[in-house]
């Protein structure tokens, strides 16, 4: 079998984390007297890690970035699952992939500690490897994280199916020249992904089963 592993993005792909990210941002922004942001703005600011989310939320007023970011992390670490939910069809998709003996991993630009907390809550004993943002690796679309996963699983890029929702994820698959499947229910505008060359995209997570089930 050519494809041996399925690597997932987290936010906007496996989990709808938008409201918790928004409320955490707004808590930190309000604490220092900055204007709060809408859900739509939060969605646009996601994709390159939580520090970049906070930086974008400040809209150029970065004098107290580190303080706002610290407050955001403290609040989010205690409120990361107040509203967060698993997207419809994800558990069924994961069960299907496990039944077909695919190795499962997560590659996200989210803070490693918070990522681990989310995965332990929503997906215990599901993924062989969970790679979040840490000082030893560059974030996606760099291939540092995917390299780590491939080395750990003893596979090559060509053996990977990457499932994500953003232009960052799409660029990661292009950099690796691996198969990508993109979800339209996430945080990116679907038309943007299509215009950037996404070949496989689905409206619902459950539809991924048909794509992967049809692979040779």
Features:
216 residues, alpha/beta, two-stranded antiparallel sheet, 10 helices
Written account of the structure:
By secondary structure, this protein is an alpha/beta fold. It has ten helices and eight strands. Helix 6 links the parallel strand 4 and strand 5. The protein is globular and about 55 Å long. The mean pLDDT is 95.
Task: Give me the secondary-structure topology.
Layout: E1 5-8, E2 15-16, H1 18-31, H2 39-45, H3 50-57, H4 65-78, E3 85-86, H5 90-99, E4 103-111, H6 112-122, E5 129-133, H7 144-153, E6 160-164, H8 167-176, E7 179-183, H9 190-195, E8 200-202, H10 208-213
Parallel strand pairs: 1-4, 1-6, 4-5, 6-7, 7-8
Antiparallel strand pairs: 2-3
Helix pairs in contact: 1-4, 3-4
| Strand order in space, largest sheet | 5-4-1-6-7-8
Mean residue pLDDT: 95
Helical stretch tally: 10
What kind of sheet is the major sheet? 6 strands, parallel
Ranges where pLDDT stays below 50 over 5 or more residues in a row are: none
N-to-C series of helices and strands? EEHHHHEHEHEHEHEHEH
- Structural class per helix/strand content? alpha/beta
Q: Count the strands?
A: 8
Beta-sheet strand percentage? 15-25%
Helix content: 40-55%
Q: Radius of gyration, rounded? A: 17 Å
Shape: globular
Measured distance between first and last alpha carbons: 7 Å
Summarize this entry quickly.
The chain is an alpha/beta fold and 216 residues long.
